[in-house]
Amino acid sequence: MKSIKEHLMFILPLMAMLIGIEFILVFNRITSSYENKLKNEYAILVVSKKTLKTPFVRSIDNRIDTVEPMNREEIAREVTAGMQDAAIAAIMKDLPYFYRIHLTKYFSLKDLKEIRDNLKKVNGILNVEIFGKNYHSKHSMFELVKMLLNIFIVMLFAVSILLVIKQMQVWQLAHKERMQIMEIFGAPMMLRSGILFKVALTDAFIATILNMGLFIYFKNKWAKTSDVDFIKNNPDLLFNISDFFLLFLLAIVIVIISVFYVAFKSREVPEG
Amino acid sequence: MANVISANSLTLAYDKGKTVVINDATFTIEQGEFVFITGPSGSGKSTLLKSMYGQIKPYKGKLSVGGFDMNRIKRNQLLQLRRNMGIVFQDYKLINEWTVEKNVVLPLIITGYSLDVQKVQAEKLLAHVKLSEHAHKYPLELSGGEQQRVGVARALSKNPFLILADEPTGNLDEFSSGVVWDLLENACDQLNATVVVVTHKIPTIFNIPYRHFIIENGGVHEVH
Ligand SMILES: Nc1ncnc2c1ncn2[C@@H]1O[C@H](COP(=O)(O)OP(=O)(O)O)[C@@H](O)[C@H]1O
Ligand SMILES: [Mg+2]
Known about the structure:
The structure holds 2 protein chains of 2 kinds.
Chain A: H1 2-41, E1 44-48, H2 54-60, E2 64-69, H3 72-80, H4 85-94, E3 97-103, H5 109-120, E4 125-129, H6 132-184, H7 189-192, H8 194-222, H9 229-233, H10 241-266
Antiparallel strand pairs in A: 1-3, 1-4, 2-3
Helix pairs in contact in A: 1-6, 1-8, 1-10, 3-4, 6-10, 8-10
Chain B: E1 3-14, E2 19-30, E3 34-38, H1 45-52, E4 60-65, E5 68-69, H2 75-83, E6 85-88, H3 100-104, H4 106-111, H5 115-128, H6 144-156, E7 162-166, H7 174-191, E8 194-198, E9 211-216, E10 219-223
Parallel strand pairs in B: 3-8, 3-9, 6-7, 7-8
Antiparallel strand pairs in B: 1-2, 1-4, 4-5, 9-10
The structure holds adenosine-5'-diphosphate and magnesium ion.
C-alpha cells in the first residue's frame, strides 16, 4: 500500500509532464496542419495588365509561393455572353489577366498588407485584393487559441515540476540513511542509487505507457465523435507512435536528473 | 610488520580549525594488533576513529591508513579502502528496510559478489554470531544486542584487514557485550585483523594481548 502510494506520487507528476509534452507535440501537429489548410485555402487576388509568372512574382516578395492564373476565357465568357466575335476580340484585348497568389505560410494581416503594397508597386498590376477583414479575424482567433494552450502547457509543466521536486524530497528522506550507510562501507554512487534508479525507471515506463494509452484513447474514441471536423478527419494528428520514444526518452531524462539529485543531496560531506 | 595505521603530528579539528580536538598525535598501529581507545566523553575518540575511515581529513600532520595518505586520498580510493574495512557503530547503523541476512552481506553486495556467494556467506556469518534463526527478520524486530551482533557480522563479512568500532557495546547489556567482545577478539586472534575499538570501559575479561590509548586534552597517550 505504502509502496503503491510512493509510486503514484512520482508517476502522477511525471505523467502530467509527459501529457504537457504530448500536448505540445499534438498541438504543433494540429496547428501546423490546420495552418497549412488555411494557407492553401487562401489566395490573394491580383489583376494585372501583363502576364505574371511565378519566378518573377516570387522575386517581388519571397513570402509568395505560387501564382495561379485564372481562366481568362471563362471570365470573358460571362461578360461577353451574346456579343459578336469582333466585340469579344476587342474586349479580350483589353481584358486584364487575373491571378490567385498563394503564400508560403499563414501570415499575419501585417504581412499581407506588406505583400499587397509590394505587388502594387509592380508596373502593370492594376489591383490587389487581400480580403483582409475576414482573414484577420480568422488569423487572430487562431493566434489566441494558440497562446491560451501554450499558457496552459506552461502551467501544467510548472506544477508538475514542483510535484516532482516534492517527490524527490520524499525519496531523499526515505533513502538518505541507506545511501549513507552504503557509502560508509565503500559503495560507489551508482550502486547507492541503483535501487532508486530501478524504482524510477519503472515509474517512467508506467507513466509513458499510461500517457500513451490516454492519447490513443483520444485518437480512437474521442476524435471520431468530435464536433471539430478537422480533428475528426485527421485523428492521426492526435497520436503518433514516434511520440512514445520521445516521451520515454524524456521520462528517463527526468528520472536520471531526479535520482542524481537525491544521490547528490545524500552524499557524505567530509567533516572538519 | 607493516604499519596499518600511522599518525605523525596528527591534528584533527572542526570548523576549519576553530575547534581542535586531537592535537599533534603520533602513533603507529601494526597488522594484527588490538587497540582500545578510551577517554572522557567529548575528548575526541569518535573523531579519531572518523579520521581512520576518512570521514574527517587531517587538519595538520600526517595520517596513513592501509597505505593510503589520508590527506591526499581520492574519493574512489577512499571507497576502495572502506570496502576492505569493517566498521561497527554504537547505534548499529543497519539498513532497516533490509533483512538481517542482507544487512550482513552488505560488503559483499558492494563488492559485487554473486547471490549464491552472498547466501552461503550470510549463513556462515549468522551462525557465527548465533543469529541463524533471525536471518529473514528485519533489524527493528531484534533486540539491541542482536542488532549489534548483526553489525559485527557485517563488519567481519569480507575478512577486513582493519576493523574500527566506536563504542560497540555502548548500548548493550553485559551478556551481549560479552558476545561482541568475543567476536572482535576472534577476528584479531584468528583472522589477524587489526582492531581499533573506542570504548569508555575496557572489558574485565579479555583474553588476548592489547594496547591501550587514552585521549586527554587533545593528546593521544599509550598506557603501558
Ligand atoms: N561535526 C562536528 N562539528 C563540530 N564539532 C564536533 C563535531 N563532532 C564532534 N565535535 C566536537 O568535537 C569534540 C569531540 O567529539 P567526539 O569525537 O565525538 O568525542 P567522543 O567520541 O570522545 O565523545 C566534542 O567537543 C564535540 O562537540
Ligand atoms: Mg563518541
